[in-house]
User: What shape does this take?
Amino acid sequence: MDSENEDELFSAGDFKMSENLIDLENFRRIVSHIQRVHENGLKLAEELIKAGRPRFARRTTIEIFKHDLSKLGEFEYTKFFSGDKEELKQAVSHHRWTNPHHIDYYEEHKDMPEVQLACMACDFKARSEEFGDNVKKYLKEFCEAKSISVNTNFYKKLTGFLNLIIEDKFQ
Assistant: This one.
């Protein structure tokens, strides 16, 4: 093999290697988020058991272990990381409409089951940690964007679940 062909093969191999490293990093980001949610969910389940809600704790744990698995599916995974803004929008929309821990899954926030509010609390804590935000700030911005009052049962239940897994409690 002459050196010109070797250079072509080496360059193609380098490109493939960098693609693989990027894919590995994307995979790790998703899995890391899922693991954070699982950790938060297990902490929440323990607190729920201590509070006398063992059945609800087990149901919540089952839902937590299903958390965000669609992100690893081909549709969402490839679109999340394609670099194309329109494909990213499609992936986010698909994710929100197919995962019951997202408010967009429901016609109205008041339709969201309690178990999914518990999962949402675990997700919010994980997301706020990943973005370096305070979960209170994260929830405030979320509620403002969705026009959800702090006087709703939705907000009260969500903050109740968060209070079981965060240090700086909501009042």
Residues 9-15 have pLDDT under 50 and may be disordered. The two ends are 72 Å apart (CA to CA).
